[in-house]
Amino acid sequence: MNGIISVDKRRVAASFSRAATTYDDAAHLQRTIGHALMERLPVGLAPARVLDVGCGTGYFTRQLAERFPGAAMLGLDLAHGMLTHARQHTSEATTWLQGDAERLPLAAESMGLVFSSLAVQWCAGLDVFLAEAARVLRPGGWLAFTTLGDGTLHELKALWQDIDPFVHVNEFLSRETIEASVACSSLTPVMHQYQRHVIHHATPEAMMRELKAIGAHNINAGRTPGLTGRQRLMCLRKGYEPLRTPAGLPTTYHACYLLLKKPLKPSP
Fold first, then answer.
1. Could you give the domains of the chain?
2. N or C: the chain end with fewer CB closer than 10 Å?
3. pTM of the prediction?
């Protein structure tokens, strides 16, 4: 994979807008990963302005406001429905922006911290996001983000490949591609960690309902036209069952945690 993923941004925005009212109740893994990213932020960090890219319902925007009292908070998301929900459930003085992570509507060198948890995988190119983050960060500013890597949802992907030729599972960048993009950026990598998360569901339908509830169902080119048929679902249940453990049917996520710093300008 060359670092570019076929993504229909309008479909992404619409999918997450529809999930605005169900997201918080279903986003258990997303909360776990986002909190783990916050725990990895540098000790003593005190940014004057913080941007939460892919803020969704504003959950981590609020967490960041508590972490950095006095900082100007900005939440940005592609989905209008998510921003509407965030405004209705946030009392803090936060600025909400509808925009694209690959074209941030912000001035250069205006942010002390850019934070983004599990949003970058919806970008068409990681290189573009890194360049935009570098542009809006002040010298000495930090970028902290998580994304999902190749191998995420591999159980579901393998099962669907045995059932029909359509694309049912979103594509994710390989570890090598992520590392190459970071190496080519103007930011200095400080931390780069991978963690495997496995969650369990009672049935394949429960797993797919959860993906739909957080707006993360398939948005890639080549997806199945129309609704998934009953016969295909029966094949999916039959194929998934041998993977069952005492905890349920496993679903694997490969999370990548990254901290990068913008170099200080050289002294004159």
1. 9-149+171-196+256-261 (3.40.50.150)
2. C
3. 0.88
